[in-house]
Amino acid sequence: TWDCRSLSSTMLLLTFLLCGAHLAHDVAAGTQGVGESALSCPDVDSLQRELRDLKERQTSVEASLTDAQSQIAELNSKAKSTVVFSATTDESGAIGPFNTHTNILYKKAITNVGGAYNPSTGIFTAPVSGIYYFSFFSHSGGNRIVNLQLMKNEEFIVGIYDHQTSHDGADNGGNAAFVQLRQGDQVYVRLIANTHVWGKGSVTTFNGFLLSQE
């Protein structure tokens, strides 16, 4: 950063040295030119005024630069992020029933642009605030109840439910929702206690993407 105070001191010192040199020269030549030399020395007050103006201009430029940097940082933070994921359970058979509510682990991430979905936990964590679209689908045997819930943090959003029957060999279900999330919010699919889904292959899936960033 340009230090105007140092510049001011340096220029004043140079001014005095120049004036002293002129005076010394005139004294050596004779006293008649001393008054004229004193009058010819730069106006120190005028020089100080110019330095003050220069410092004010520098302060204004620095303020404009800081403001521009803040605007650039804000625009970068609002630049649209690409967040898309699609995952499947990829199990060997049925998932459940369990004695307690259990988060479904969609272990195989088919697509995970942005890395917001964690296959180890089955949880999607919003990297930015915005409107997201989520969908989830299930395949199941008809001899057991199916009850899946799309959750935002601990809040129920939408679900898939199918009752138990003795004559229906298999069922498919699905649901979807647009969800407004803040950065750090978590979305996952919960299997309700004493229910099940079929996890083999790629028939039970969880998907989502960022639609509009705030």
From TrEMBL:
It is found in: Secreted. Its main location: secreted. Gene3D superfamilies: 2.60.120.40. Residues 78-214 form the C1q domain. Pfam families: C1q. GO terms for cellular component: extracellular region. Residues 1-29 form the signal peptide. It comes from the Eukaryota. Keywords: Coiled coil, Secreted, Signal. Residues 44-71 form a coiled coil. This is Complement C1q-like protein 4. It comes from Oryzias melastigma (Marine medaka). The lineage of its organism: Eukaryota, Metazoa, Chordata, Craniata, Vertebrata.
